[in-house]
Design brief:
single chain, mainly alpha, two-stranded parallel ribbon, two-stranded antiparallel ribbon
Length: 255
């Protein structure tokens, strides 16, 4: 099955680096028809890394989230150990430069929808902001307001909407259907790019980007959804209240 690609791109497959994963969320079979290629037996694995994202055989990203949290916390601790400054702005700059890129990478692909995983990710920013001098006695919401930064949950919601905007306004390759998005033909109010939300019987589909983004995208005012540039769209998002779409927002005052 690799031959067409080999001929077009003149690439060779590193068979020894390949592995086989049984996607149980979409397969009913217990066994593969074949697990060999070019006479080499491919090892079967329960999770695999693809372009830096770890996905398991149930199309879940729990392993990836745990790895992201571990890497982000390690870098957070290094910032406080390696820099002598106690200035909040300098510490925040280090956080944005070295920690946020780990937490933000490809979130439209793996953004969690369970309280447990959302809380686990948020714990990175909770702990970092609590360690900033002068903020330890504040609640998490108060620390966010003081530092003028959003929660990680809100940041991932923004990332979903920005990616949706790029798809619907032709800033990425391919039509919306390629990404699972369908523009509704029944628009009674709001903007003209409202999405049709498909019924999902399985959690893996319900939590997928194309379903997850529908409610928040459809709630946007017309002047936001039809912004004439990505930059303006990003700025307008920051003025819109998305608290109703955040699962863990009410828990932020507990810390």
């Amino acid at each position: 099955m690799f031959l067409p690609g080999l001929k077009i791109w003149q690439l060779t497959i590193a068979i020894k680096k390949c592995s086989l994963i049984d996607i149980k969320a979409v397969r009913n079979n217990d066994e593969f028809d074949s697990n060999t290629h070019a006479g080499f037996e491919l090892p079967c694995v329960d999770a695999i890394r693809d372009l830096g994202i770890i996905v398991d055989s149930h199309l879940k990203f729990h392993n990836h989230i745990q790895q992201v949290v571990a890497d982000a916390k390690k870098r957070s601790h290094l910032i406080y150990r390696c820099f002598e400054t106690k200035d909040a702005n300098q510490l925040l700059l280090g956080y944005k430069s070295y920690v946020l890129p780990i937490l933000n990478y490809c979130t439209p692909v793996w953004s969690p929808c369970t309280i447990q995983e959302i809380t686990l990710l948020e714990s990175v920013q909770r702990k970092f902001t609590r360690m900033i001098p002068g903020l330890s006695s504040m609640t998490y919401n108060e620390r966010l307001a003081n530092l003028k930064i959003p929660s990680l949950e809100l940041r991932r919601l923004w990332n979903d909407l920005i990616f949706c905007y790029k798809i619907l306004h032709n800033h990425v390759t391919g039509p919306p259907e390629k990404y699972g998005l369908t523009i509704s033909n029944r628009v009674s109010r709001g903007h003209n790019l409202k999405l049709f939300k498909n019924h999902a019987s399985k959690d893996v589909r319900k939590d997928f980007f194309s379903n997850r983004v529908c409610n928040s995208w459809n709630s946007l005012p017309e002047h936001v959804a039809n912004s004439n540039s990505i930059t303006k769209f990003k700025k307008k998002l920051q003025t819109f209240n998305f608290n109703n779409f955040l699962i863990c927002f009410k828990t932020y005052d507990n810390d």
